[in-house]
Each structure stands twice: as structure tokens, then as C-alpha cells.
Amino acid sequence: MLENQKGFTLTEVMLFLAVSGFLIMIAFAGLSGRINRVRFADSMRNLESFFESEESKVRNGVFGPIPGDCNGGAVVSGECVLLGRRITFTNVPPDSSIARIDNIVGERLRTNSAVPTTINDALNASNLTYSSASTYNLDWGVRLINSTGSNMVGYIRDPRASVILPFTGDPPGISTSTTLCFSDPDNNNKATITFSPNAQGVDLRFEDC
Question: Model pTM?
Fold first, then answer.
């Protein structure tokens, strides 16, 4: 005798498809979140490398003619030197994913003049001016959302020596520090970058802010 053979009912098939679809959605959501975290981390490390590159440009600064004059045209370009790079962020969309980069140009200190006793005095004696250089676009829609201090940061060379210092503010504040807080487009991942005058490089931390 043949035994009765039973198949799946329509209800069982629909239930299986519903459960499978739900599990796939959960797996996709988890994968999407992981991809976003990886993208955010990659973007922040690229930003960290960008700051290191800017510091290197200042460290290997140009000590020859600089395009344009400094001190409002009172000094010919041959006596102007590249002293630093200023990086300006904004937390106002849609520009919160863009940083503006300016050259900091100063007058070459005269060897027959009295040497300023502090770096701030030296910078004042150099009659600093700024000239637009380029922009930097943050990857994957990462943006600045707030800062504890100035949105202007950068690196500057002591006109008296080869010492390179991070700075904040405009004009450069050598004795202050600032922390910039960045987020992905959905505010699910955040990180901070801190500039400190006594630190080598920037301090990148993946933390809430």
C-alpha cells in the first residue's frame, strides 16, 4: 500500500517566507551598520593623515618667493616666506563637510633686527597675511557638528627657528587647544580630533561628543 504523502500548505509556505525575509532584513541592517562604521573610521583616519600632510608641508616650507606680497603689499614677494597653513571648518550645512585651506605668509625677519623673545611676538613682527590655497572634502558625508574652541586650526613655523607648532584661532593662538567633533550623516558614529600646542600631531578618538 502507498502511504499518504503530505506537502507544505500555503500557510506554512507564507510563514516560512515571512520569517526568512525578517531574518534577511536583520542581517542586512547589521551589515549596513558595520559598513557605515568602517566608512566613518576610514574617513576619520584619512582626515588624520590630511592633518599630518599639512604639518609636513609647513615643516618643509618654501623659503623662496611666495605668490603675492605680504604685509598688504608693503613687502615685495621675494621677502615673504610660507610660515604655515590654516584650516577652517564650519558646522553649517552644506559646507560642514568641507575644510578651507589657506597659506599663512609672513615677512622674513631681518637679521639686523632684535630677535623677538616669544613666538607670538615673532609672528606679530612677521606681519602675517593669508592667501587661499585649496579645500579638503571629508569622505562619505562625514561632517563637523561642533567644537570646543575655534573652528580654525593649523600649523605654523616659529619665524625664529624650525619649530612647528599646532595652533587654533585667528590670529593663531599658540597657547590654546580645541577639539573638533565629527559625525556620519546619520549621527550614529562620532569621533573627535584635538589640537594641542604641546602635542605632536593630533589626537583622534572614536567617542561620543
Answer: 0.76
pLDDT in 10s for each residue of the chain, 209 residues: 455 556 667 776 677 777 776 667 766 666 677 888 999 999 999 999 999 998 888 887 654 445 555 655 555 545 677 788 899 998 888 888 999 998 888 877 765 556 666 777 777 777 788 888 889 999 999 999 999 888 889 888 877 777 788 888 876 666 678 899 999 998 999 999 998 876 777 899 999 98
Q: Three-state secondary structure along 91-118?
A: CCCCHHHEEEEEEEEEECCCCCCCCCCC
Report the distance separating Cα 208 and Cα 183, nearest Å: 9
Domain parsing of the chain, residue ranges: 21-205
Whether the Cβ atoms of residue 177 and residue 197 lie closer than 8 Å to each other: yes
